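*** Query protein ***
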Amino acid sequence: MTESDRIRALVSRTARFLDAAVYDQFLDLFTDDGRYRIEAMSAELGKQMTWMDLDRSELAALFKEYPDHVVDKATRLHLVTTDEVEIADDSGTALSTFAVFRTDQHGASALYAVGRYEDAFVRLGQTWKLRSRKVRVETRQFTVPTPLPL
């Protein structure tokens, strides 16, 4: 397996772990100083909006507190295509396109969100870790809002 393949597999694991709600495993894919950010371009404001900007510890707190709130009982399924991977020594970047489908408790599925991931990675020994993920969503109106990462 090439280093590009390892990074593509890591991007895929992020989606699978979110879909399966195994948030500890999702967090383990990040470096200790990792960062997660969601942005959207506002046509009305004519500028970029930041919807979420959390470091790894803040993301861990979000996952811990999530069950204490009213939560969406629907499941989500990510489809992710990693379009580009660039590697330079012990760091790398990947650009991916994603679609998230939401299936409600009655079994009805619908497109929930689309966007792009801009990921930065670092190699720690033989393992690649996410240093940062910037999610650029195209979707700005959600059927059921959620505080969970996309």
The chain is about 20% helix and 50% strand.
